[in-house]
């Protein structure tokens, strides 16, 4: 299905939905989430953008808050157990890049666990674009400064 994604989406959308409901095998979750979220398309449309954001210094206001939250994300998971380890570094990179990509939205603590789970299944650049899609397409306004969309839904 993943190798012929466009064909399956065009003609057998219900079959994809049923397979997702049954459960996506752990070995395929990263790839499937990229396709399902639209993160794969965003990545292809924006080559080099994540690297550009990653190399940018970032807003000190957000960097400090993100840094304080890193150790709270899945502290017993092997990726995030050590301070300054590769998991925490990648999480920092993804969250910092998002604050630069959407400076009007910035960072919200609720983004960190989502980004961490994405990183458990895919590299940082792919996790970033999936996070972008989740924040923009599926949960717009959930991570805004005043959390307007969450309050409306609540």
Automatic annotation (TrEMBL):
<keyword id="KW-0343">GTPase activation</keyword>
<dbReference type="GO" id="GO:0005829">
    <property type="term" value="C:cytosol"/>
</dbReference>
<dbReference type="GO" id="GO:0005096">
    <property type="term" value="F:GTPase activator activity"/>
</dbReference>
<dbReference type="GO" id="GO:0031267">
    <property type="term" value="F:small GTPase binding"/>
</dbReference>
<protein>
    <submittedName>
        <fullName>TBC1D10A isoform 9</fullName>
    </submittedName>
</protein>
<dbReference type="InterPro" id="IPR035969">
    <property type="entry name" value="Rab-GAP_TBC_sf"/>
</dbReference>
<dbReference type="InterPro" id="IPR000195">
    <property type="entry name" value="Rab-GAP-TBC_dom"/>
</dbReference>
<dbReference type="GO" id="GO:0042147">
    <property type="term" value="P:retrograde transport, endosome to Golgi"/>
</dbReference>
<feature type="domain" description="Rab-GAP TBC">
    <location>
        <begin position="23"/>
        <end position="154"/>
    </location>
</feature>
<dbReference type="InterPro" id="IPR050302">
    <property type="entry name" value="Rab_GAP_TBC_domain"/>
</dbReference>
<dbReference type="Pfam" id="PF00566">
    <property type="entry name" value="RabGAP-TBC"/>
</dbReference>
């Amino acid at each position: 299905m993943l190798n012929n994604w466009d064909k399956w989406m065009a003609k057998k959308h219900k079959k994809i939905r049923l397979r997702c409901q049954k459960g996506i095998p752990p070995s395929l979750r990263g790839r499937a989430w990229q396709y399902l979220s639209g993160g794969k398309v965003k990545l292809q449309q924006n080559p080099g953008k994540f690297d550009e954001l990653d190399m940018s210094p970032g807003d000190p206001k957000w960097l400090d808050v993100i840094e304080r939250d890193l150790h709270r994300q899945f502290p017993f998971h092997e990726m995030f157990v050590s301070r300054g380890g590769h998991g925490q570094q990648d999480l920092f990179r993804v969250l910092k890049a998002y604050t630069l990509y959407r400076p009007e939205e910035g960072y919200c603590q609720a983004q960190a666990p989502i980004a961490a789970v994405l990183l458990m299944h895919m590299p940082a650049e792919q996790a970033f674009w999936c996070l972008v899609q989740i924040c923009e397409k599926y949960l717009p306004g959930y991570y805004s400064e005043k959390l307007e969309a969450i309050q409306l839904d609540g």
